[in-house]
UniProtKB/TrEMBL annotation:
The chain crosses the membrane at residues 6-25, 84-101. InterPro entries: DUF1294. Keywords: Membrane, Transmembrane, Transmembrane helix. The keyword Membrane applies. Pfam families: DUF1294. This is DUF1294 domain-containing protein.
Amino acid sequence: MTHILLVAATYLIVINLITWVLYRYDLKQATSGHRRIPEMGLLTLALLGGTPAARRVQRLGHYKFLKPPTRRYILRLCHWHQRFTVLGFSAASIVLAQIYLTSGR
């Protein structure tokens, strides 16, 4: 079980680092007038687990923060990630308790 948590934590760290870098890169591209990363690509990164990084860049750089649809999408993703995290920990706790109780300890 520890291995699974380590893999999940590593994944979330990596996806948030990638999201942070690409959102910051897109912000730089926007301010310099160069070609930007498509919004669907950025939202996909947030969907895959990079919501915390996306929210942070939005707040720090006032990046797409004034654009209501994007802000709403990120907020919705954030709420769904929180719900799934709580459900995931609850399910994992139930499974671990069941394993402990059936192991005869």
